[in-house]
Amino acid sequence: MIIKASRITAESTHRHLYRHLMRTDENEEVRIVQGREFALAEAVKDARYAKRRYGLRHVILSPEQATSPETFQKIVTLYQSEFGADPPLMIVEHQKKRADGQSYDRHWHVVFAETLTNGRSLNSRFIRIRNEKVARFTELAFGQPLTSGKHNDAVIRALEASSNPQMQRAATDLKQAFWGESDKPQATFTDKAHQVTRRKAGRSVLPSMRAHLRKRWQEKGRVLLSFIERVADEGYLIREGDKPDVWLIGQNGGAHLALHRVLGLKKKELVVLLSDADRSVPLSPPRLTVKAVKVNKPPPIVVPPDYAQKLEALRHRIRPRWKRSECRAELIALPYQNMVRRLENSTLGEMLERLLAALIARMLKALFGLSVDVPPITADEARERISKACAEVASLRQQDVQEHFASPEVQAALKERRLLKQCLVSDNPVTRQAMKAGAWGEAMMTLRSEPRVPVHAVPKMPQQKTVSYLGGL
């Protein structure tokens, strides 16, 4: 089950979304389950009246296996309950053949109002993690193949914290399936890249291209050299990408994909395979279901409460000073946009005052060598200053985060956390006994040959101080 959500701003109209829902050129069948276009238009008007940024939330529910209408309604109700949404404004069912030719050929588009009937905004905190939470719980509840998501650990913690016994049991099953996995799944292409190539080509390109290449890869023993020769006959070329260890595959002048993601390999694995291209690559393990997980994997160990405290301490040690959003220049600049708006709306008298202040500052510098900080005169000048200062701050913060994760202390904490998670679902009786007794060090030593180095024994690297404010604006 794949659940994707996008938020439609109140400034834009609902018509672009409605046209997408009603497209018959890309779908074999389009069926309106409930709702009308009028409801979408009214929701956008309500958001504008309440001065909200977003008007609609567009949710796509794409199951891998056949799903009955009753099951679909339960999934919608579950999503609605998770985010506290009002009943859907519109539900549209699309039928079209999937690119892989195997998955269920139907998916649903569900549209919710971002402004609730009580006047509040629809909850959007940690929206991606909660989308995965609903998707994983749905897979467990209805026996569909489990999908390893990017936020497995966060989903497990959220399910464990729930007061619902069914969700707590789902957390145990997910922990049994995915707990301790060090490799996070990566999408072959982003939704933005998909939409851009679709607009350029006039049709969906990347999913069918990915499915075709993967089909060719599965043929004749998964040998890279043979694969390259076969796709070369079809016009596909392989070239080195701009990033290190990234190779791209695509047709000349057309769309391209990262080769390692098409083949389901890591970048380093692909680099090694390129030097030995005649070697056959083993098949990937099949997707797990709940029954397969319980048969093939041992259940998680019931450990003392301080196991969670240990993981939380490691998580706190690993967490960098800056969040990802705090390292983006455009987000750092948001609080300073009021200055630009004031300059845009300033009167002629205010403009003359700023020009006079700038002239006096230049005279003082020329006559007496005094350096006086002059505020920006025009809105364009303010934008330029803000953009430059925010880019410098973002660069310093990104450098600080990179140095943080490269430090020996954080690397040791990451390794220790990974081993602790693997110990929880290990089938080694010695490891399981040590975990039950709370002997974390002995349990981890059974999974690695090198002697254990405690995290606190690694000297902490001093962090470079970075600017957390914008001076001189």
Count of helical segments? Answer: 20
Q: How do the strands line up in the largest sheet?
A: 1-3-5-4-2
Level of helix content? 40-55%
Cα distance, first to last residue?
Answer: 48 Å
CATH architecture of the largest domain: 2-Layer Sandwich
Q: Which shape, going by the Cα principal axes?
A: globular
H/E order of the elements? EHEHEHEEHHHHHHEEEHHHHHHHHHHH
Task: Estimate the mean pLDDT confidence.
Answer: 79
Task: Give the CATH topology of the largest domain.
Answer: BirA Bifunctional Protein, domain 2
Main sheet summary: 5 strands, antiparallel
Structural class: alpha+beta
Under CATH at level 1, the class of the largest domain stands as Alpha Beta
Topology:
Elements: E1 2-9, H1 15-21, E2 29-35, H2 37-49, E3 54-62, H3 69-83, E4 90-95, E5 106-113, H4 127-142, H5 152-161, H6 165-178, H7 191-201, H8 206-218, H9 224-232, E6 236-240, E7 247-251, E8 256-258, H10 259-263, H11 267-274, H12 290-296, H13 306-318, H14 329-332, H15 337-344, H16 348-368, H17 379-406, H18 408-424, H19 429-436, H20 440-445
Antiparallel strand pairs: 1-3, 2-4, 3-5, 4-5, 6-7, 7-8
How would you describe this protein?
Helices cover 49% and strands 11% of the residues. The chain has 20 helices and 8 strands. The strands form 2 sheets. Strands 1-3-5-4-2 form a 5-stranded antiparallel sheet. A hairpin with a 6-residue loop joins strand 6 (236-240) and strand 7 (247-251). 24% of the residues are buried. Residues 449-473 have low confidence and may be disordered.
